[in-house]
Design a protein that fits this description.
The structure holds 2 protein chains of 2 kinds. Chain A is built from 12 helices and 2 strands, in the order H-H-H-H-H-E-E-H-H-H-H-H-H-H. Chain A is mainly alpha-helical. Chain A has a two-stranded antiparallel ribbon. The mean pLDDT of chain A is 88. Chain B is mainly α. Chain B has one domain: Orthogonal Bundle (ABC transporter involved in vitamin B12 uptake, BtuC). Helices cover 72% and strands 1% of the residues of chain B. Chain B has a two-stranded antiparallel sheet with strand order 1-2. In chain B, helix 1 packs parallel to helix 11, helix 2 packs parallel to helix 6 and helix 3 packs across helix 9. The mean pLDDT of chain B is 88. Classes of the chains: A mainly alpha, B mainly alpha.
Chain lengths: 304, 327
């Protein structure tokens, strides 16, 4: 039972991390209609910025701030130089150009930092374990990730639903000519939305980099999972991104934890491990296929 | 009009053969191997182009079919070497190392995967379609990594290149000849297909779906057919690629591979018959020329691609041919 509770917390933590990635992607999709493959690079840049600044200053918190700032700054820069020219193009051009951006960022990072993974040390406050009600001992940092993810979710719902900027973002999503005619600087709005998404990706990268390692190419598997999340949740919907991220995080974590044991009940142990883990790695895509059959535009998606 | 359109396509193909023959005569087997790689990648690109260029279906998952074709070839070849049957139920199937026996299996398996993935993905359009095809390809990638029977993460090698009766497949030029012949025949078939009623319907569905439906054609069936054919060609290319390296690994299924196949198509010019071959040639040439100059040649490639997208959206063949029509 404790083991199951621990896996549920792991799934929650994984889901929250995916949400940080998917939220930015889905905003950029929804508002600008742009498919951005380079979102994973911003995640990577956030992690490297955190690692570099934390190593130079000795403060994890400065590193975390640096990850937000670096990813947001790079996001704004890329939007102004390249991405802005792609809004009016078809998706094919967007895919190719942002794929090319990945090549540039990955090689650039490798050139700056080398191919070896970097490791972050956690601040003392978060490096220990906490005992939860029921006797479960769980790493404090992973709890912090869940907490940060929840805070970002609340913040985003407030930003989109309750502020002037949010009204403009939603208006830009609905009718960009009209809002431009009403005197809103649409180019600036787009740069801000892109930078916001980039900052969230950078934050996710820094947090995950602290648990695992910081290396070139770390953003790509997460990017594809974020795509799965968006397909499940529906493009442009923050709520869909949250629900989708939690579904994917739970399915993947619980599948990997439980399936091999389940198969071991009616198969010999070694075969059960290989069949179970092979199937577990496919589980989230099966989930995606089921959602597609049931609702082709995702759980909360309005338009294709 | 058709003739002037066909000339550039023929020139690209002829240039590839000329490069391989001259390289072989002047004693550069490595260049022949590079030309073989261009023919194989070009073939995969011609396959993707059928869905992407003519059908407007931006599939970011063609590595799935390319990799499956490769794995079929490697699995059959490794079973032929070990003598163990591939399956014993419901019928016994032995391995083989005869290319003409391997190719139909590679094509069938890739085609079946394309049927399943296509039937699900084509329920969506636009960015959803891109992400869904990408995700399904990634599913196969993770499956290949975590399935230990055929090498898992390490991949699967077979030590003897498969045979083709009447040819010595170990002679670089002869293996190139086989790949180039497959490429040439496929290009002719694709040209015939795209000018047939089916091809017209496919292109019409890309241009204006509503009108196509109004004239009594179901776009879903047309698109699914194109997607399956496209996957089959990619699978055949994968089988050849496995033979070229005598090795397959999950990297063949990775999304970088999907991206590269897409780059061949777009670099050469979307919807042009020989575009992917030209694109693959430029890509391989860049890798060959820039690789020794800098370890970070991919960054240069990335910058070049961005410039092409921003300033030459019709690809290199479009750039060279100006505004003349697509064939």
């Amino acid at each position: 039972m404790l083991l199951l509770a621990e896996q549920v917390l792991n799934g929650l933590q994984y889901g929250m991390m995916l949400f940080l990635m998917a939220a930015g992607l889905t905003l950029v999709f929804g508002v600008m209609g742009l498919i951005n493959l380079a979102h994973g690079s911003l995640y990577m840049v956030g992690a490297f910025a955190c690692a570099a600044v934390a190593a130079a200053t000795g403060s994890f918190w400065l590193g975390l701030a640096a990850s937000l700032a670096a990813a947001a700054a790079l996001g704004a820069m890329v939007e102004i130089v390249v991405i802005r020219r792609l809004y009016s193009r078809d998706h094919l051009d967007q895919v190719l150009a942002t794929f090319a951006l990945i090549l540039v960022f990955s090689e650039g990072t490798r050139w700056l930092f080398g191919s070896f993974p970097l490791y972050l040390s956690l601040p003392p406050v978060l490096s220990g374990a906490m005992t939860l009600p029921g006797g479960l001992v769980y790493p404090a940092f992973r709890l912090a990730i869940i907490f940060i993810g929840a805070m970002v979710a609340v913040g985003l719902f407030w930003l989109i639903g309750r502020t002037r900027l949010g009204i403009r973002i939603r208006a830009g999503e609905a009718d960009r000519e009209m809002i431009a005619a009403l005197g809103v600087d649409i180019a600036k709005l787009y740069t801000m939305v892109f930078a916001l998404g980039a900052a969230l990706a950078g934050l996710a990268g820094a947090l995950v980099g602290s648990v695992q390692s910081v290396q070139v190419g770390m953003g790509e598997p997460v990017l594809i999972l974020a795509f799965v999340v968006i397909v499940i949740g529906g493009i442009g919907s923050i709520r869909g991104a949250l629900i989708g991220a939690l579904l994917v995080g739970m399915t993947d974590t619980l599948g990997k934890a439980l399936l091999p044991g389940l198969f071991a009940r009616f198969m010999e142990a070694s075969a059960a491990t290989s069949v179970g883990s092979a199937l577990a790695s496919m589980l989230i895509y099966v989930l995606m296929a089921l959602v597609l059959i049931w609702r082709p535009t995702g759980l909360y998606g309005a338009r294709a | 009009m058709r003739l002037t359109g066909a000339v550039p396509n023929f020139l690209v193909f002829a240039a590839l053969i000329a490069v391989a023959v001259i390289a072989d005569l002047t004693g550069n087997p490595y260049i022949v191997t590079l030309a073989t790689k261009v023919a194989i990648f070009g073939l995969a690109g011609v396959g993707l182009n059928l869905a992407l260029g003519y059908g407007g279906l931006v599939s970011f998952g063609h590595a799935a079919f390319f990799g499956l074709g490769g794995y079929v070839a490697a699995i059959l070849a490794s079973h032929a070497a070990s003598g163990a049957p591939v399956v014993t139920f419901p019928f016994t199937m032995m391995g083989t190392n005869e290319m003409l026996a391997i190719w139909p299996f590679a094509i069938l398996v890739a085609g079946f995967a394309a049927l399943v993935i296509g039937a699900l993905s084509l329920r969506t359009t636009g960015v959803y379609f891109i992400m869904v095809t990408l995700a399904f390809a990634q599913m196969l990638y993770y499956f290949a990594i975590s399935w230990p029977t055929y090498g898992g993460e390490d991949g699967l090698s077979f030590y003897v290149r498969n045979t083709f009766s009447g040819a010595n497949t170990f002679a670089p030029l002869q293996f190139f000849g086989i790949c180039a012949a497959v490429l040439g025949i496929t290009m002719i078939l694709v040209a015939l297909l795209t000018q047939s009623r089916f091809g017209l319907a496919l292109r019409a569905a890309k241009e204006n779906e509503t009108r196509v439906i109004a004239s009594g054609i179901k776009p879903f069936a047309i698109r699914l057919t194109a997607f399956v054919l496209s996957g089959m060609v990619a699978g055949l290319a994968g089988a050849l690629f496995a033979d070229l390296n005598r090795f397959v690994s999950p990297a063949m299924l990775s999304w970088h591979m999907s991206g590269e196949i897409m780059i061949f198509v777009i670099l050469g010019g979307v919807g042009r018959l020989a575009g992917p071959v030209a694109g693959a040639a430029v890509f391989i040439a860049l890798e060959y020329l820039l690789g020794p100059v800098s370890d970070h040649w991919q960054a240069l490639l990335g910058l070049m691609l961005i410039l092409i997208v921003l300033f030459a959206p019709k690809g290199l063949m479009g750039l060279a041919l100006g505004r003349r029509g697509h064939v």
